[in-house]
């Protein structure tokens, strides 16, 4: 049965999309069958996965297409469902009772086809993020090591708690991953300590893998490649490999 991981933070530009792409590519490289879902109207993941325009996640949410009809093949072992600009109207367009369950229902028939489904979410706490959190078994919180992140993580944790109460009691926080990390900045160290303390308060953990600031991440996205194939020796590839191994410990034997 597919496990579903949502990558979330309502703060913009913290590395959600880069992280979703790296984790999806890393799992596919291990031979897992992976589906990536772009639930962000900006469509950044769709762009970096090289998807073509056409019906995607919005069609699922509106029940105008089945998941099998909108899946595209992105790379070996990596399929994807793309975004489209009309996702930005989801909050208004999808308003009926049960609106939180649309994605979960649409992905259910794929449970045997994939081992992992990874969902990239937009920088907002609206119907799209709630659909992702309702479909997911786990949520990975991505954050930058600055003090302003603390408040945002708390709000996200509140949303997770609400989704748990009303829609998805089994939802777990997989951890908090710090991206765009700069070891030399004393502020980054201080912020990490504060986020670590906050993670414990929220009943989760600050993951030990840190994704360093690294220009190869931007380049890989622009070149529509994943970080492991584009720059296998870069700091970001090493760091994302560490995050992958921490989140999904490789099977022995
Ligand atoms: N480790 C990194 N080093 C350098 N640049 C990075 C790193 N991670 C992400 N970036 C760059 O920062 C920008 C934001 O990253 P990304 O798009 O992954 O964030 P996001 O949280 O998905 O943003 P949004 O909230 O807008 O969807 C992108 O231009 C990306 O290339
Ligand atoms: Mg993004």
From TrEMBL:
CDD domains (alphabetical): ParAB_family
Location of the AAA domain: 2-173
Gene3D superfamilies: P-loop containing nucleotide triphosphate hydrolases (3.40.50.300)
SUPFAM superfamilies: P-loop containing nucleoside triphosphate hydrolases
Pfam families referenced in this protein's UniProt entry, alphabetically: AAA_31
InterPro entries membership: AAA_dom, DNA_Partitioning_ATPase, P-loop_NTPase
Origin superkingdom: Bacteria
Protein name: ParA family protein
Native species: Mesosutterella porci
